[in-house]
Inverse folding.
DNA sequence: AACCCATTGAGGTGTGCAACTCTTTTTGAC
DNA sequence: GTCAAAAAGAGTTGCACACCTCAATGGGTT
């Protein structure tokens, strides 16, 4: 079966082109029986609408909204920049991305942002925290035919169509393995800092981290997690306290943002070289400290990949086309000094 | 400036649409002076041809050739499978990929394969070894207007348009860092096995590996590299010899294929748990042994990404469109037991 | 002056689909 | 059996470009 056109389908189904068009695009005014016939013909001929032709013919651009957190988190700023770059490229593709910012730590605010979206929106991608109001808002949107994607942190019990981000359990486990192997046979304590345990991604990282340390590295003991809201100052205080209170501290894992805070505390304590530090997200600053050795390993999710993937998935789902799983899977990148991009 | 069309360019340049079309598509029969005027108008208006419209209007499909190695190398078989999957998807995009196999270890054979390509081909991607005959063949193709990409292993002094693969120096350095850190303060010898030092990627990996070990890990000593042509049996013999000849062997780095050989030798020697083993490429077999702990870390280049990237780059270059560097950069993936996809 | 040939223009057709209008046919309620 | 509403058909146009034909222009040649 070569290239099938709508006309072939129309002929096969014994209906007119207009009817096939109505069925394919889910417009009303077609008898259920006829819809069946058309769908049968489509399946039988293996018809796949030509994406170029349909994008060319489309009058209206797709209108997608991206909802990102406010705040100083470097990764989020990076993600924002990547979305802006993607937006420029997508304009040629008749896809419009608009980027909004809300306080992600506030579930009600996120829900409000979702609820106040104008109708006519084709899809949303949102960095959401796992809060009942957010779940409700997502479900309402999904039910009204809007494609909803969760970004960075998932809301798994909602009807979001897809999650764009890494497996955060696995990320936590990876951090644990790196620390366990880098520390070696030494005994000691491991400190963990998170942004907020209201964010699902951070809880998951914590869970994975503690699981592996306790199971595989009996020489290590994880100290109680400290929350620091991804803010440099608070992170610095938390790391400083860890270093001061525990003379046998051998490693720090910062699962959230504010890496600069840990670095400052490490430098102030004079333990840069004997305390292993594993952090998240490749930024100009973490990159520099990875080269210097202050940071021993970075766990990263590629912001550019996420932005491009989000755009691709939104349009694919909107058009009812399949997505390519391998292409859209966000990897847990491990960066050492030597394999940075 | 919004969406510019060919018609806008024609108006701006003061010529007809037909002439603009001739210039844009490189057809003959236009005065040099006129070509200049049209190009100036294009640049001034920031015109970018709509990829959907042009693909839709094009009668002929693009015809790209992919030249892969014969042999049992698991990564190459994986790459082959990914190219086949990509081919199916690209058919809808009016792009035809055909996949050939030649003996990559034979420079003359690779060159012959390149030279015997039918004219009318739009582009080639080839896993090439760095051999004068190959360089010549690539240059000849490039000069005749064919887009040439190198795959996996580069031929940097040729006029290939792009290289799709990882930085192999960095991959070697990464392997060294992993081994250095996993071994810890222990002293001992490190064995390295490569496929063939006639392949540029393996030389580069060796170089990067030895550079880091000698510079950063004075407790380790790299033994002379053994070539094993990516064949399981030869690799097993090489690894077995390493294990037998050096009682103070603390790590093995296999820069080529045939990981199963190393695993067999390790298991036979009883040193599975105390000899660190770092290998390349995630395959069903290496994956299994990474979980079991026989393999301590894997360095990977994503075959799916490479196949998709190759297709995108070929068509983009063929159409004179820019490529997105971040999207086409092939990462050096580090996989531990915990972050496998 | 007659002629040649490189340039250029004009215009048409095709591409596969979205979206719209205008008819015609069918269906179902009363 | 009547009539309106629902369903289906027919036909057109637009999208931005590729590709082709045919004709016109004009400078240079002999």
């Amino acid at each position: 079966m070569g290239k099938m056109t709508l006309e072939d389908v129309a002929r096969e189904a014994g209906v007119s082109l207009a009817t096939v068009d109505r069925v394919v695009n889910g417009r009303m005014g077609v008898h259920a029986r006829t819809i069946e016939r058309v769908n049968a013909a489509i399946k039988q001929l293996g018809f796949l609408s030509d994406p170029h032709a349909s994008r060319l013919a489309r009058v209206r651009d797709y209108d997608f909204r991206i909802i990102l957190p406010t705040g100083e988190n470097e990764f989020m700023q990076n993600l924002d920049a990547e979305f802006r770059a993607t937006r420029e490229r997508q304009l040629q593709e008749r896809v419009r991305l608009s980027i909004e910012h809300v306080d992600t730590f506030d579930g009600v605010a996120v829900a409000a942002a979702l609820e106040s979206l104008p109708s006519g929106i084709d899809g949303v991608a949102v960095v959401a925290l796992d809060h009942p109001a957010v779940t409700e808002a997502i479900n309402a949107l999904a039910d009204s035919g809007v494609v909803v994607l969760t970004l960075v942190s998932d809301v798994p019990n909602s009807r979001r169509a897809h999650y764009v981000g890494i497996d955060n359990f696995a990320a936590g486990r990876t951090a644990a393995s790196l620390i366990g192997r880098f520390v070696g046979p030494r005994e000691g304590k491991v400190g963990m800092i998170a942004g907020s345990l209201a964010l699902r991604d951070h809880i998951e990282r914590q869970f994975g981290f503690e699981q592996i340390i306790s199971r595989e590295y009996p020489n290590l003991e994880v100290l109680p997690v400290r929350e620091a809201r991804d803010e440099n100052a608070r992170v610095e205080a938390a790391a400083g306290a860890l270093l001061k209170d525990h003379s046998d501290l051998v490693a720090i894992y910062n699962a959230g943002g504010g890496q600069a805070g840990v670095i400052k505390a490490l430098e102030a304590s004079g333990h840069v070289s004997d305390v292993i530090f594993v952090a998240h997200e490749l930024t100009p600053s973490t990159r520099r400290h990875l080269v210097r050795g202050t940071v021993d390993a970075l766990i990263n999710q590629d912001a550019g990949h996420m932005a491009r993937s989000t755009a691709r998935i939104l349009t694919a789902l909107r058009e009812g086309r399949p997505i390519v799983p391998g292409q859209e899977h966000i990897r847990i990148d491990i960066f050492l000094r030597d394999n940075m991009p």
Observations:
- The longest strand of chain A covers residues 62-69.
- Chain A touches chain B at residues 48, 50-53, 55-56, 82, 89, 92-93, 170-171, 173-174, 176-178, 181-182, 184-185, 208, 212, 299, 302, 304-305, 308, 324, 326-327, 329, 331-339, 341 (CB under 8 Å).
- The two ends of chain A are 43 Å apart (CA to CA).
- Residues 15-19, 22, 29-31, 34, 53, 55-59 of chain A lie near DNA strand D (CB under 10 Å from a C1').
